[in-house]
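Figure 6 in text form: structure in, sequence out.
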């Protein structure tokens, strides 16, 4: 069949002609200053915080609310600066962080032992699933009366409730991550002869790192709010921590100092979340393509 005859069978809607160059399309252009700043994660989050501060200060000015009930942001910052000058806020922060770090580290250690047991044997997996189902819904602060009876007032009671708040959250999230590891990766580990802790460290932990980091973040958040709540009942040691500062100043009706302590609690939480855990995520799961 001739070429002219073939052209008769070509439907016009399926005939492709020469494509012209794209017009009015920014294939590559320099970003504006606003676009450069808006692409920075820290700038966006700081803008949200700044908007909240402006709203807080504006409300205290416009509404005329009694400062004893709701102090302005300016009054709270002045109170915070006073505690910085006399050094009391640093003692409070250290007492809280010290008890928190001990409880957090102990909770991670116990979680690691339970996870090794769960991965090694079927009864260990059943044991961990049962224990997390029992104790994960139980608020750590509800164990504080028992901790006071068992260990008396002081550091040990704070560490006990902190361990409870960390242990089950980390163990549950990590165990779910381990169970989600593909059978292909598990076979790779077995083919290399990996067993026990080397198998967990080289196969399960890298594959389940997203779930592990989620558990660590949840455990940190639970521990942080638990220890602040526990310190509302008694101090960590010596002059007490941030929770004790909130309680004492509330009892004395020094509301700006209550807000100053709350402000420190929020700032420390933001720093841990957006500096420590964020950098870990960027250098691990995001770098490896496991998270956007």
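Output sequence:
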């Amino acid at each position: 069949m001739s070429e002219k005859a073939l052209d008769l069978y070509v439907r016009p809607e399926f005939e492709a002609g020469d494509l012209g160059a794209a017009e009015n399309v920014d294939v590559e252009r320099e970003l504006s200053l606003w676009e450069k700043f808006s692409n920075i994660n820290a700038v966006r989050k700081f803008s949200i915080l700044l908007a909240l501060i402006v709203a807080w200060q504006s409300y205290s000015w416009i509404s005329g609310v009694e400062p004893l009930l709701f102090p302005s942001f300016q009054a709270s910052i002045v109170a915070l600066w006073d505690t910085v000058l006399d050094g009391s806020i640093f003692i409070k922060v250290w007492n809280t962080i010290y008890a928190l770090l001990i409880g957090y580290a102990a909770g991670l250690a116990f979680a690691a032992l339970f996870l090794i047991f769960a991965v090694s044997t079927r009864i260990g997996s059943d044991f961990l699933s049962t224990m997390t189902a029992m104790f994960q819904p139980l608020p750590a602060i509800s164990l504080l009366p028992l901790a006071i009876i068992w260990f008396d007032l002081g550091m040990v009671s704070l560490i006990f409730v902190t361990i409870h708040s960390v242990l089950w959250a980390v163990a549950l999230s990590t165990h779910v991550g381990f169970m989600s590891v593909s059978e292909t990766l598990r076979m790779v580990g077995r083919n290399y002869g990996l067993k026990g802790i080397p198998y967990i460290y080289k196969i399960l932990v890298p594959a389940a790192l997203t779930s592990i980091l989620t558990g660590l973040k949840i455990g940190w958040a639970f521990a942080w709010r638990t220890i602040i709540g526990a310190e509302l009942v008694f101090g960590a040691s010596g002059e007490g921590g941030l929770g004790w500062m909130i309680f004492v100043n509330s009892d004395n009706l020094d509301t700006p100092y209550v807000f100053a302590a709350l402000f420190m609690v929020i700032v420390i939480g933001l720093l841990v979340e957006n500096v420590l855990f964020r950098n870990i995520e960027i250098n691990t799961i995001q770098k490896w393509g496991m998270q956007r």
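Caption detail: The two ends are 55 Å apart (CA to CA).
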